[in-house]
Fold:
Amino acid sequence: MTMIEALRSAMDVMLARDERVVIFGEDVGYFGGVFRCTQGLQKKYGEERVFDTPINESAIAGMAIGMAAQGMRPCAEIQFADYMYPAYDQITQEAARIRHRSNGDFTCPLTIRMPTGGGIYGGQTHSQSPEALFTHVAGLKVVQPSTPYDAKGLLIASIEDPDPVIFLEPKRLYNGPFDGDHTATSQGWAQHPAGDVPEEYYRIDLGKASVRREGAALTILAYGTMVFVAERAVRDTGVDAEIIDLRTLLPLDLETIRASVEKTGRCLVLHEATRTSGFGGELIAEVQEACFWHLEAPIVRVTGWDAPYPHAQEWDYFPGPKRAARGIARVMEA
Amino acid sequence: MAARKTTAKKPNVSGDELKQYYRDMLLIRRFEEKAGQLYGMGLIGGFCHLYIGQEAVVVGLEATAKENDKRITTYRDHGHMLACGMDPKGVMAELTGRQDGYSKGKGGSMHMFSKEKHFYGGHGIVGANVPLGAGLAFADKYRGNDNVTYTYFGDGAANQGQVYETFNMAALWQLPVVFVIENNQYAMGTSQERSTSTQDIYKRGEAFGIPGEMVDGMNVLSVKEAGEKAVAHCRAGKGPYILEIKTYRYRGHSMSDPAKYRTREEVQKMREERDPIEQARDMLLTGKHASEEDLKAIDKEIKEIVNASAEFAKDSPEPALDELWTDIYAKEVPQGEAV
Structure:
């Protein structure tokens, strides 16, 4: 399966298993979603369970919160993460806090899916990586898969989760793995082992990172598209790195990270989002607090530049394998 | 206030004016066709929303504008830029992401601006430009002039909450803003019926005390006539006005949209029976305002302008790497020591 098919399969499975689940968003029903993630679901489950909304991000989030407070399991789509800002008020001040401020009377088991990240020439309003805006909010969970297999298992776990989950889908990975080399021929998921996705129900628990490559020389922390950039940079440099795909950013799997950094003594953090106040800053703080006495070199991060995502200079902006390799060299030489 | 439907009338403009509208619409049509070709050749990347079919809307309204009026629109913006007199070369070079584009390649198809032409941008986020339009109008009212702001948005954006927050404020403060709803009947892949509770969007202004009317957007003269009335209302200090202009886009929402949510016949019928450029052409010929030769000469002139813009956009250099960090702050703020 592609990641698109895997996500669709997760929603299909959950619609079939749990009648509390409904799927909605802009162009999601009749049209099947701009990235086709919900194609065919309205036909299969009807307009009552899979439906279109107007272009109203704020009300999409707000309605989902109301449904969730009533015990439904809404799974809403925001068409691009860049469109979520009108919904941010609802997500941060309503979804994230309703459990706390109602003393547990009302909860918010909702999932909001949104395509994130760059690499598709989307420019400044279709390429952003806003994960840190969500990880900063107590009460939310934040997930970002990097493979079809993980996408399905994590989305099912998100829909089943008793708390609000922001589910960020790296859209450059929808149709195949991407290591940051835009000049190479695109690859599909068919050749990748993680493209082998069962049709049936399975779940991958939130809060568990995945060690994508074991290694002894340094630990690379990445998520989404940057996992593949890390793999490529490791191949290019020949450094025996351990690559950890975080998968869930909040709650963070600090145990897996700690075990790895204690072993390697070195750490590199990668993300597409801008550097200042990016999630990398949080990761570095956690690692130095947990592993300070094991560190042999300063922790380095390779990120998007502190600039709006450009239209014309995407590949100067996107932190590709060359920059990741420079980051590896910097950590190793210290 | 009465909300009424406008019907197409006999030409109330001179032959020369009508010829100008024909020329302006044709420029948009040919420019967009060329942009579509360049997209197909890989010279334009990412998102690109063509205005083909909707030309009469912006050309008819620009015919009602005076010096120093403002305009702001959404991401289907190339037509607005050409109609207000921006240089096709600079627009095309922005589409190809080059140094000589209006935003030096930083903005792309959806984000271009011209201070000289009082064009306050294409905006990529649906509905987000509408409050900005009221702010532009506020500034003109504050300064005590009689300038008007044309604030364009689509039927999809018309369901955004911020549109209604803006309607209320614009009416409350009697701002000189014409809200132009370009109703092309499809919000990306979702038809108006699937997303909108009441079909006459212009009537929603009644709740705020804003007069409005429905306009035939396939006839440039109908648009101009309705625009004149709206603009006169605003210039007289009577506050905002809503024009819901029924139009149609022939192409997909963007270049990656196969437009499977409507039938081929529906598009074909609109092209054959309602095309704004063909209608203008008929009026020119039957009114004997232009001969076939005159129109051929216009065709030729437009073709040359569009071809020159495409050549310019291909030849213009890629922006320098430093451009990534210019115009983020007034003075450059140093980046952290990045790898």
Remarks:
- Strands of chain B lie at 70-72, 149-154, 177-183, 186-187, 190-191, 212-216, 241-246.
- The first helix of chain B runs from residue 15 to 40.
- Residues 15-310 of chain B form a domain with the Rossmann fold fold (CATH 3.40.50.970).
